Amino acid sequence: MRLKMTVNGESRDADGVWPGESLLYVLRERLGLPGSKNACEQGECGSCTVYLDGVAVCACLVAAGQAVDREVITVEGLADGDRLDPVQECFVQAGAVQCGFCTPGLIVATHDLIARNPSPSDEEIREALAGNLCRCTGYEKILDAVRAAARRKAAQT
Amino acid sequence: MTKPLTSTSRAGGVGESPVRPDGPLKVKGEFAYSSDLWIDGMLWGATLRSPHPRARITGVDIGPALAIAGVRAVLTHADVPGDKFYGIDQRDQPVLAIDEVRYQGEPVALVAADHPEAARRALNSIEVHYEVLEPIFDAHKALFDPTSEHVHPGTNLVRHQPVRQGDPDDPAVRAQCAVVIARDYEVGIQDQAFLGPESGLAIPSEDGGIELYVATQWLHNDLAQIAPCLRLPQEKVRMTMAGVGGAFGGREDLSMQIHVAMLALHTGKPVKMVYHREESFFGHVHRHPAVMHYEHGASADGKLVFVKAQIALDGGGFASTTPAVVANAASLGVGPYEVPHVKIDAYGAYTNNPPCGAMRGFGAVQACFAYESQMDAVAEALGMSPWRLRQINAVSEGSTLPTGQVIDSPVPLSEMLDDLVAMPLPPSEEFDLRRMPGGVSNTTHGEGVRRGVGYGVGIKNICFSEGFDDYSTARVRLEMIGGEPAALVHTAAAEVGQGLVTLKAQIARTELGIERVTIAPADSRVGNAGSSSASRQSYMTGGAVKEACAAVRQRVIELAGAPADAQLVGGKVVTALGEVVAQLADVLGDTAIEETREYRHRPTERMNPLTGQGNSHVQFALCVHRAVVDVDVELGLVRVVELAAVQDVGKIMNLLSLEGQIHGGTAQGLGLAVMEEIQVANGKVLNPSFTDYLIPTILDMPPMRLKILENADPHAPYGLRGAGEPPTLSSTPAIVAAIRQATGLALKRVPIRPEHLTGTLAS
């Protein structure tokens, strides 16, 4: 089948899509956007988190057909060229990135958290990111990054 | 496809914490992991695996699979071009099963197709006829019951390593003991659970060779196993490291490397292969489960008199790294304590359980849970505090281990315990449901919740041991680029997330006195770097980069006509007294200076096969943990409230990365303590998914306090000590000790499950 959706502000088409393909597969394998990651493909790890019409979802749990004519924003759509989003910048600077496979999902989930709650408490950060598995960091530097990103965004507005 | 990394932070030498050069790519989603690779016209590879842990294969019919539209190849063992077996230590594992399968998930056949769904359907259409056999799944029986069947002809024993010192059975020795504690312990199978699945891309080349882009811990060892199976000379197998999504030991053995290359060579097309998560649980080796019997005797004043231990490690169907895991469990089996009389027997077994090999901590983790549990039991029997008992018996520089090896660098365990105990305990908190065991599930408001505090100590060998020719290679090139001196650092060492790319640039900046450093992609066009395991890359590849830089610097100094002890500082050649001899720009001109160096650590020896004696290790690293837990004793739910750690790293090379290693290693130890186990029944895995195999989330990991000490190892580059593994050892027993204190239960098995805490199952 043929799909059309808006991805990171651009209208995109994909041809010859098998109806069983997930949004994650279409993004990664058909639209050249492998930033959203394929760690579990069953909605447990959060590494494929994207915005679908402004709501953070696991792209692996969305059938590609469900995204037709809707707006998708992936981790590739958050930076402004070489200028990183404050969330991205804080993850790099805080040491919240090791192997980085969980990072794209955590970046989108954190971006979403701070948009909803500009100054989250530690408990609120933990609840919000409980669906994003990280195997490398033990999460301490991720908490540092989220706190710093919230402060930086607050200072910008 | 894999790009060189130019450090975005231009400053940051040894001891500083510049940001990692791959950081910006990773946060933008632009870093190319092995599962992200894509090339026009590529096919998708897939693997058919045995559903049985033990069976004879009586027939395979690939005809129906080949008939499916879009299927380009179906291969079995008959299609392996060269050697049919591979293995990291012993070449005992078939590339594809021949006549018999020895574990559930063993690869039997391969498919290449236009679309992953076509490949999946083809797998379902391959008809394999099995004669199912009763699996051998009890490691203890496999080793010690003479009537047990054998997994491989003639034996179920991979290695037996004794350690003998003094005589724990001498009645005169026993008479010195005020307490003797004998207990059995068990460790379940832990999975590395790296997030980036096994994956890669193989592209056939015009010369009949192959380009392989894979995520691995050790390119050159992969290459040495792959090439003979493909019947290709090593130079025709060109390997490049693709982005690695975590490893933790699980990428030390091969997974899909030979398979994807076979499919590409057979079809003449590029082939991509990506395991899904369930397949990943079958696609790599795990941490060995262990059954251990320990007996400790101590005098009334708390001095250990003897330790006896029998440690049985289940390696599953193939040898993998079991021989080295057995050696670690044996040589480090009493922990960092002075014990005059020791009798240890460590065994590695073949069974039809899931295959086991390397995982962070590697043999030392299993023994650490047992010996630290024993230390707590001895302390309790003597009425002593657990940390005081450890101090009384602690090793220090100059101590002799039960293997006869004298520790010849600082191991200030007693001081580390002082520091740990002095750390403040977590303050009392106002009630918040989110901080209760069970969290927002609203299972308790504090009734039935008991707090406990526990301690754990671990000792890990760093680098490869037992006489292995352990080295790394680095090539460093210095030249003027755009009017600025710049270095290119090239090694084959695997960046698995630990931050080696950052560290290599830091070393080059410090040694060459420049700012701009580029890290070349790791590939097989430069010499062997050894494995990113055994906490060894800062030491080994760090050492190689340092030496290669020193060789480059030497040539610059000669070119400049400067005294031999001159240094490179801030783009200038400077004498020891600080006088500027020349600008690097003037000395280099259009010349590029390139040097390659191999770095080796001091030689080690094999353990004596009968006594375990020998200088088998090159370096030792210690970490100590304190855990504070809240346990809901009615429901068996545990919340780890805080973890504190003290670790001696010799030299802090990069504080940010180092803290990340200690946090992350600690988290994996927490997972082993209370969550993580591959559950197996009759050789079959019950929970191959992240729904059922639980790893710690951000809700499970508590805040951590760290204290890091820098007592230099005079034998190591910059005095550094490997740091990645030790925290994984000590956090597990600390958490278990805290749960014991909260519940009063003996708790002889990890991971602890709720039913172990509520009395519904014998603990």
Describe this structure in words.
Chain A: Residues 1-78 form the 2Fe-2S ferredoxin-type domain. The complex is a heterodimer of chains A (157) and B (763). Chain A is of the alpha+beta class and 157 residues long. Helices cover 35% and strands 13% of the residues of chain A. Chain A is built from 5 helices and 5 strands; from the N terminus they run E-E-H-E-E-E-H-H-H-H. In chain A, helix 2 (86-94) runs antiparallel to helix 5. The longest helix of chain A is centred in the last third of the chain and has 17 residues, at 140-156. The mean pLDDT of chain A is 97. Chain B has 763 residues and is of the alpha+beta class. Chain B is built from 18 helices and 34 strands. In chain B, helix 13 (500-512) links the parallel strand 23 and strand 24 (516-519). The mean pLDDT of chain B is 97. Chains A and B meet through helix 2, helix 3, helix 4 and helix 5 of A and helix 1 and helix 16 of B.
Briefly, what is this?
The complex is a heterodimer of chains A (157) and B (763). By secondary structure, chain A is α+β, with helices and mostly antiparallel strands. Chain A has helices at 23-30, 86-94, 103-116, 122-128, 140-156, and strands spanning 3-7, 10-14, 49-52, 55-58, 71-73.
